[in-house]
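Q: Sequence in, structure out?
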Amino acid sequence: MSNATYNANGDNGDQGSTEGELNQWKHRPPYRVHDKAEDFKVRYQGSCHCGKVKYQLSREKPLDAKYCHCTTCQKIHGSPFQWAAIFHKDDINFTHGHHDLGWYESSEKTCVHKLPCKVSCAYCRTPIMDEGRNMILLFPTLIDFKSPEDRKNFDISCHMFYGRRVLDIPDGKPKWTGINDQSDLIEDSPQDAVNDLKRKRQEENEKNDKDP
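A: Exactly. Output:
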């Protein structure tokens, strides 16, 4: 699909249609609208700034939640970091704005639905989620939390790309120089986490030394 087929309304030239090869994404998670007969238990509701895009979530807690300090997140969100919560694609159900979404693939800088990509409201441009090949990263600031307990379910487990931060956050959470578990821990990361990482990598090195 070329950039020329992308309309400002986010429909990629499909004019709201659900038919045809270009619209198959609308029949797959996370965009597939759940049937009322399905056992989709609504736990949270979220929306963009203008309200054209609205969704429901069925999972009580995300699979994980993190602050990402990479420069891409800083620029796209216009903020010091991105607060992201990981969900399965079947955990979300769009109730409004199914056809009001726009995409951005940051590595090639194109507005096509190519995974992984960033999804936003095509009208007010609010970032809705990052869609990966297997999971989605939602932004908890779009969720209407009903209680402090609900908000606490989205507490982060760690910081990523903390070496690129523009704001210090001395919260005692693990702070990775890059992707968590694939980089180094720095700053005020818990000593237990640092020790566990050292032990894990030592075991991996010993295993590699033994392998022919």
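The longest strand covers residues 82-88.
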